[in-house]
Design goal:
Oligomer: single chain
Shape: globular
Radius of gyration: 24 Å
Distance between the termini: 41 Å
Structural class: alpha+beta
Number of strands: 38
Largest sheet: 8 strands, mixed
Strand order of the largest sheet: 30-31-34-33-35-36-37-38
């Protein structure tokens, strides 16, 4: 019989160690012969990214074979966030970017990896794309004292460039950023953008002729740029290019029919009030796939994700139980590989026959926690000073406990990073870790989030540190006013840009009783000076250009108002973070100590921007739970007590 216990102290079978392994970090997947290959992070092996394969037609428990053994790790650092770090060039050949040296390597299965690009040349590679017997890649070249230079190159598969950088053929360059190399015969398409734009602000789609020597000639911009963001060009015919763009405020499918040499007309394939597309933080992301029969499978996002098929007779919604973080990976016949989760289904890698939606099967992840322990996410909307604020509410959920009648639950308000990204209400062990113990979770898509159109996304322009703070505060207050949360026991947690919002909210509102900042931004001027090239001008839109807006940078920064930080704060930081270096978190720690505010600071050796190692993830969640118990007033059995200074 369920027992009645105080919120926060409920016994739970979901341990912090389960969070590290429950939802694998899938970085890509593809059909290779009759197998499926995919890559995923292995927290137990210092967070390295391994490549695996299994039979695509096999049962759900089909044998999984490791293709890329330790210590190799397929992970790119182009633009620091990487993407497209591996592909196949045949049924037995894997090419990948090795994390430790950023070289491209070729592994013939059963053999030892062989280098394809030179060592010690300051080069990084990403967006590996095999087409017409050639391997294309985005190359990023670093030299001391200069901004990185990016171009698209052809990497010889015979190893001739392993010792000679000049053997790499430069296809196209000349812009600050390039992405999505796409070749078909003598046609070549790619994406490019320049500072101060981010790819979701404006990205141009160009096409050109691929010459016999590998260079592109007669290139022309066919879409995007000038306030329009293009994405994911795919050749769907000899003279037909399908891609995504948002000329009217939503990323939707577009098609270019080339006529003559490079002239042509762009026409929309669909214009729903939803996004097919998203922010290009990682290279190589795909939101649609073209099937062999010409139909298109696509993700549509309006807060939550839907999977649809564009058919000659119209658009069909597949109705699968996946609604969050959906990305399409590969297609074969009528079958597709996709990643993502649902409101009652943790994230994973899935195989689906689009003509039989009931055929959906998990190939990796997608399970592991009894569904009765997973809280159903409830989409909620609150009114903030700038308009509607969207969020997902995960109530305390534990089948072995009856909620007390005389108490409202404490709540942890989550603030996603980016800030140009979103959450979509999928089930996760990270959420269930708290909700199963009687701590509610509210995940907020504040103004600036994607998935609601460009207007909602651009609500943050010039207002970072204002609109995001107002929105999370409005959502937290609204939940308490609805009687769903204890307004005196609201905590806030965020990472990176989300950590910035945490610190700003603690300094500028009285809504929250505690805060958890994972590698959060504390000083905007330091961020602008120290961060990497991809985000070097990101703040121009979010805050304002320097030096003209320096006064705003100073006024908005939590470190400027450190004397206002009066509630307990837990700070978690990676020692090797190149995006938000430890100096920012250390400055907040020192300010808290000077203010006499209870706090804890934990720095993890070997971790960068985002925690990948099992021991780090486990310690971080246990520390967060102990911290919340101490400052919000409940026991936390089963986790070590976190010392607070």
């Amino acid at each position: 019989m369920p027992q009645t216990l105080t919120y926060g102290s409920w016994p739970s079978p979901i341990a912090a160690a389960d969070v590290a392994i429950a939802s694998p970090r899938i970085d890509g997947a593809r059909f290779v012969g009759e197998d499926v290959w995919w890559s995923e992070g292995v927290p137990a092996e210092r967070g390295r990214t391994a490549v695996f394969r299994r039979a695509s037609y096999g049962p759900s428990d089909a044998r999984v074979e490791l293709l890329l053994p330790a210590p190799w790790s397929a992970r790119s650092r182009v633009q620091e966030y990487g993407g497209g770090a591996w592909t196949s060039i045949g049924p037995d050949d894997l090419v990948f970017v090795e994390h430790s040296d950023q070289r491209v390597w070729l592994q013939r299965l059963g053999g030892t990896p062989e280098p394809l690009t030179p060592a010690d040349a300051g080069m990084r590679f990403a967006d590996l794309t095999a087409a017409d017997g050639r391997l294309f890649a985005v190359r990023e070249t670093h030299t001391d004292g200069a901004a990185p230079v990016r171009d698209i190159v052809i990497v010889p598969l015979d190893g001739s460039a392993a010792d000679r950088a000049e053997a790499l053929t430069r296809v196209v360059g000349g812009t600050d950023f390039v992405a999505y190399p796409s070749a078909r015969g003598a046609r070549f398409a790619w994406l490019s953008w320049n500072h101060p734009d981010m790819p979701w602000d404006a990205a141009a789609l160009s096409v050109g002729r691929l010459m016999p020597d590998g260079a592109v000639a007669d290139s022309v911009v066919v879409a995007g740029g000038n306030g329009v963001s293009a994405l994911q060009p795919e050749w769907t015919g000899p003279d037909e290019l399908t891609f995504l763009a948002d000329p009217h405020g939503r990323w939707n499918l577009q098609r270019l029919q080339l006529e003559g040499r490079l002239a042509g007309k762009v026409e929309p394939l669909a214009t729903p009030d939803a996004d097919t597309g998203g922010p290009l933080w990682n290279l190589g992301l795909r939101w649609f796939l073209t099937l062999e029969d010409g139909r298109i499978v696509a993700v549509r996002t309006n807060g939550r994700d839907d999977l649809v098929v564009l058919e000659p007779t119209g658009t069909r919604t597949l109705g699968v139980p996946l609604s969050g973080s959906l990305l399409l990976r590969d297609a074969r016949g009528t079958r597709v590989l996709l990643t993502g989760g649902g409101s009652r289904v943790p994230g994973g890698l899935w195989l689906l026959d689009v003509d039989d939606p009931a055929s959906l099967v998990p190939l990796r992840g997608g399970a592991g926690i009894d569904p009765e322990w997973l809280p159903p996410s409830r989409p909620v909307t609150f009114e903030g000073p700038s308009g509607e604020v969207h969020a997902f509410d995960y109530p305390p959920t534990n089948p072995d406990v009856t909620e007390p009648d005389d108490e409202r639950p404490p709540y942890l308000v989550l603030v996603h990073g980016g800030p140009t990204t979103s959450v979509s209400g999928e089930a996760s062990a990270a959420v269930a870790f708290f909700t199963s113990r009687g701590i509610g979770v509210l995940d907020v898509n504040y103004g600036g989030s994607t998935g609601y159109g460009r207007r909602y996304r651009e609500r943050l322009n010039g207002q970072w540190g204002v609109v995001d703070v107002e929105d999370v505060a409005a959502a937290a207050r609204g939940l308490a006013e609805d009687g769903r949360a204890d307004g005196r026991r609201l905590a806030i947690k965020g990472a990176s840009a989300g950590g910035w919002t945490v610190l700003c909210a603690l300094a500028n509102t009285d809504v929250f009783a505690a805060g958890i900042s994972r590698y959060g931004v504390a000083d905007l001027r330091a961020l602008a000076a120290d961060t990497h090239d991809f985000e070097a001008r990101y703040l121009d839109r979010l805050v304002g250009p320097l030096p003209e807006a320096e006064d705003v940078y100073i006024e908005r920064s939590p470190l400027t108002h450190a004397d206002r930080l009066r509630v307990p704060v837990l700070i978690l930081q990676g020692a090797d973070d190149p995006v938000v270096p430890p100096a920012q978190s250390l400055a907040i720690r020192d300010a808290l100590a000077a203010n006499g505010v209870r706090h804890a600071y934990i720095e993890y050796a070997g971790e960068g921007h985002g925690f990948r190692r099992a021991e780090t993830i486990e310690n971080a969640f246990e520390s967060e739970l102990s911290f919340l118990g101490q400052v919000l007033g409940f026991e936390t059995p089963g986790v070590p007590a976190l010392p607070l200074d």
